[in-house]
Amino acid sequence: MALSNTQIRYLRGLSHALRPTVMIGGKGLTDAVVAELELALAHHELVKVHVAGDDREARAEAATVLASRTGAEVVQKIGKMICLYRRNPDSPGIELPRG
To answer: pTM of the full predicted structure?
Structure first.
């Protein structure tokens, strides 16, 4: 599901008030982290992930890998924070604008 620019702006606005739900530590991207992210996305739809480490390329790669493994869309990457969105097909909680 590709998001439009209008939808991305809307989700970015919603994500400002969020705190990180999932944190990726020193062990990096493990199966446990992906499983926890799956649960968080199923429950919240819009999730912030904090990625530890100073390597910018590793953080960008983590965002890509998390999005592909969970079927989510990357809404925003700022510093060590990644915002991901995946619509809950059973009971959607966020109504996206058209466009």
So the answer is: 0.92
Work out the angle at residue 9's Cα, subtended by the Cα atoms of residues 4 and 14, and round it to the nearest 5 degrees: 125
H and E: helices and strands count for the chain: 3, 4
Beta pairing class for 81-85 and 46-51: antiparallel
Euclidean distance between CA atoms 34 and 48, whole angstroms: 13
Note the pLDDT of residue 89.
87
Burial of 93 (0-12, 13-18, 19+ CB in 10 A): exposed
Mean pLDDT of the chain: 93
Taken in order of first residue, the domains within the chain and their CATH numbers are 5-85 (3.30.110.60)
